[in-house]
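User: Quick sanity check before I run a bigger batch. Here is a single chain. Can you write out its predicted 3D structure?
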Amino acid sequence: MLSEHGLARLQVSSPPAKSVAIMLVLRAELGIGLMDAKAVLRRVLDGDCSGTLPEMERLARRLRESGIAATATRPQGPSPELPQQPVEFPRRDVPGRRSGT
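Assistant: Done. Predicted structure follows.
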């Protein structure tokens, strides 16, 4: 999907004081632990959090619902290289899969 449609980036314009709120959203949406949430938070604040447009839109929407100014953007011009490690969302449609482990 990334190779066909290109990547999108998650951008937040909230002050660092909102970091805890951002991590809460990341943990809930991505099904990750505290240490992973801190790592993803760094990527978000650095503007290096990328994935498919629907994934980034979903995260941006959840962040906005929590009072954090966030947008999902697609770079203009030719598609840049794919990210080394895009944000991974847990698959919620697989029976018997445990999330957060």
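The helical segments are 2-5, 19-30, 34-46, 53-65.

User: Great, the batch can go ahead then.
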